[in-house]
Inverse folding.
């Protein structure tokens, strides 16, 4: 396969963001060295670190660095220093970035390493074999609707257009086609008009464009229950913004630690933003305790979805599994391996695999 040249913007952010991102960067560099690719990495400020340096959570320069890149690797942002009363908040950086880059589909895969089954509050036999992917619509729905407060009442509008639904269903159906071909669309069509639109569009798009994908519809409340009762039954789940926000947090407990889980945010093309699902963890920042596996797994998704390097992505995922199987467990996984040593374990596993 031909070597790939790619530009990657690295936005490490605050708290443990820089610690976990550093390990993911080491892994990307090891992949490049082993397979002859050339990755040009460009660091840029975001979140609290950017506020301290420039007064803005998303400086123009950072947005420009993202725009000239093929993908963005993102750590985490936020912290007590930039609390709720601050004039400029770090979180604004991430929202502005997603909107500014048109990233409307948020992918959160959940798999279970049998070695870590004990870390999950769910029974080992319930989570055995889980391999699911939630695709959440990220830029529409009630979070972005008109909001108002008038005297003793308040109002939040939930709006979706057919195009907004169709494009995220297409992303999910395409992914399902490359997996077990099972797509579950989640809505509340017994109550909400936006959900009835969602169901109609999902049905039409899958029928017309993805005939090989088997689509079923779940109501969100029953889906929430099935996710912890029979999580192995799910392949790809697609849902609107707020339902997805809730279901992805719920799904994250299956794997055992928030530190393990990656995510991707995609738009129309191959450009994407990749980040662990956790935040900046100020309680453990700066002590070498953070679990870097979620960020490393996010780098694997970057290789897969933005650079088209499926084989390399799979290698990184295997290397993480090997590191874990070899006992490189950070504190959240019940071990005492440092952030850096966990990164080293992945790099070494990778070198033995290629
Ligand atoms: P958090 O995810 O930062 O931490 C929750 C708990 O999980 C903490 O006990 C933390 O130590 C632990 N944890 C998180 N990541 C870990 C890792 N990689 N390894 C080991 N343990 C880990 O969520 P929290 O505490 O609610 O928020 C902290 C800050 O992060 C806040 O400012 C919040 O706004 C921000 N945040 C940022 C996000 C982002 O950048 N996308 C997402 C969520 C929160
Ligand atoms: Mg959330």
């Amino acid at each position: 396969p031909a070597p790939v040249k790619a530009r990657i913007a690295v936005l490490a952010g605050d708290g443990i963001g820089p610690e976990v991102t550093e390990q993911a960067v080491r892994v990307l560099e090891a992949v490049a060295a082993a397979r002859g690719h050339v990755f040009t990495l460009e660091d840029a400020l975001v979140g609290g670190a950017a506020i301290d340096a420039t007064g803005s959570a998303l400086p123009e320069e950072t947005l420009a660095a993202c725009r000239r890149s093929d993908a963005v690797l993102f750590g985490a942002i936020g912290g007590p220093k930039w609390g709720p009363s601050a004039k400029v908040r770090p979180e604004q950086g991430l929202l502005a970035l997603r909107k500014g880059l048109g990233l409307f589909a948020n992918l959160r895969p959940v798999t279970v390493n049998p070695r870590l089954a004990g870390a999950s509050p769910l029974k080992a036999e319930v989570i055995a074999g889980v391999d699911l992917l939630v695709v959440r619509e990220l830029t529409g729905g009630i979070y972005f609707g008109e909001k108002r407060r008038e005297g003793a009442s308040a109002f939040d509008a939930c709006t979706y257009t057919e195009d907004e639904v169709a494009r995220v269903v297409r992303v999910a159906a395409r992914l399902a086609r490359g997996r077990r071909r099972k797509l579950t669309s989640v809505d509340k069509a017994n109550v909400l008009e936006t959900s009835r639109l969602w169901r109609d569009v999902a049905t039409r798009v899958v029928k017309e464009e993805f005939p090989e994908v088997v689509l079923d519809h779940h109501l969100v409340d029953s889906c929430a229950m099935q996710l912890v009762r029979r999580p192995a039954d799910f392949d790809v789940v697609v849902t609107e913004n707020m339902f997805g926000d809730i279901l992805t947090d719920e799904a994250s407990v299956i794997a055992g630690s928030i530190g393990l889980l990656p995510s991707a945010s995609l738009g129309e093309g191959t450009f994407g933003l990749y980040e662990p699902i956790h935040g900046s963890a100020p309680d453990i920042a700066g002590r070498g305790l953070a679990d870097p596996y979620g960020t490393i797994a996010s780098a694997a998704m970057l290789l897969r979805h933005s650079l088209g390097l499926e084989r390399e992505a799979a290698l990184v995922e295997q290397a993480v599994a090997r590191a874990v199987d070899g006992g490189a467990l950070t504190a959240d996984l019940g071990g005492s391996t440092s952030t850096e040593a966990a990164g080293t374990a992945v790099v070494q596993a990778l070198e033995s695999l290629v």
